[in-house]
Design brief:
Number of helices: 6
Helix content: over 70%
Radius of gyration: 18 Å
C-alpha cells in the first residue's frame, strides 16, 4: 500500500496563517534585537567597505535611516532589512545571527 505524499485537501488559510505567524515572530525578534541589529548592519557594512551613503543608494533607503538603524534608534521593517541585506549581498538570517550572537555576548 502506497501512501500519498500530498494531502487530498490543501488548506490555503492554514498556509497563510503560518506565513503570517512567521512574519509576526520575525518582527518580534527584530524588535527585541533592535540595537544589536543596528550593530550587525554596521559590522556588515564596514566589512563590505561601504559608506552609509553607498549602502543607502544601493538599498534605496535614506542615509539618515541607515544611520538611525545602526544606532538602534529605529526599528527596521522586514522590508528594510531585506533591502539592506540585498544591497550588501548578505542573507537576512546572517544579519539576524550576528545580532543574536552580539546580544548573547552582551548578556553574559
Amino acid at each position: 500500500m502506497q501512501l500519498m505524499s500530498t494531502p487530498l485537501f490543501y488548506d490555503v488559510d492554514a498556509d497563510y496563517s503560518l506565513k503570517t505567524f512567521h512574519i509576526f515572530l520575525t518582527t518580534i525578534v527584530c524588535i527585541m534585537l533592535t540595537p544589536y541589529i543596528g550593530f550587525a548592519v554596521f559590522s556588515l557594512r564596514t566589512k563590505n567597505n561601504l559608506s552609509q551613503e553607498e549602502l543607502a543608494e544601493r538599498s534605496g533607503l535614506h542615509r539618515t535611516y541607515i544611520s538611525l538603524v545602526e544606532r538602534g534608534k529605529r526599528i527596521p521593517t522586514i522590508d528594510a532589512l531585506e533591502r539592506i541585506t540585498n544591497a550588501m549581498n548578505v542573507d537576512i538570517f546572517e544579519l539576524i545571527t550576528i545580532a543574536k550572537q552580539t546580544a548573547e555576548k552582551k548578556n553574559d
